Sequence to fold (255 residues):
Amino acid sequence: MTDKIVVETIAFPNGRIARAVHAPEHVDVTAILSALDLGSPRALVVITGGAGGMNEDEINRVRPFLVGGLARLAAEEHIAILDGGTDAGVMALIGEGAAAYRSTAPLIGVCPAARVAWPGNPNPNAEAQLEPNHSHFVLTDGQEFGTESETIYAIAEALSQQMPSVALLVNGGPIAYDETLKNARHGRVIIVFKGSGRAADVIAAAWEGAQADDPRVAEIMERGKIVLFDVAKGPEKLVSLIRQILCGGKPNEHC
Fold:
């Protein structure tokens, strides 16, 4: 294990080339951003959501919003997206959308190197593959999924000093509660996908008055800037909502 950042180029079978930054545990976030070389995105969307725990119905329910909604908007407006980077659940859908719209906007995945595999790194201990349409990865030193959260939110906080940002919670397992709480503590507006299942539906129900037994949910209710988005609405409603938040209440303007 090195205490210095190492940059690697990953060539995926689909022809996509990604820039991967191996980030030691205590490295400064400014060094990570410098190594990523993201260019000049106009805004940031931070995604927390389900991965391998999503069932087929849940994936199909949110696909139009992430592929035809968010990914299209990111491609059109050069909006950076920050997520967990694996080829599963919402991250796979975002990658699918980036490929469909030939996006050149940064799509940044952050995950523990010890638990993922990629071309040239088969990794017998991997629990997931890297999603092949992401443009950038930050591979952390943590040994388990969840340990990368601090790095994700350090990156999100640093980028949020340079551009407007919004968070999305789509479905989500146990780690999603911790990540949503981080967004709440950072004061970031959180769009919660009501009807997408699991953590998102628990938090949506609590926002609408249900009892919150989990202390993390209780704190999210107290501190979070929550905006509910019902998946019964269409993708264009989501695009309009994201534009409105990122553009400071001006839904019809480019961000």
Notes: The first strand starts at residue 6 and ends at 11. The two ends are 41 Å apart (CA to CA). The chain is about 40% helix and 20% strand.
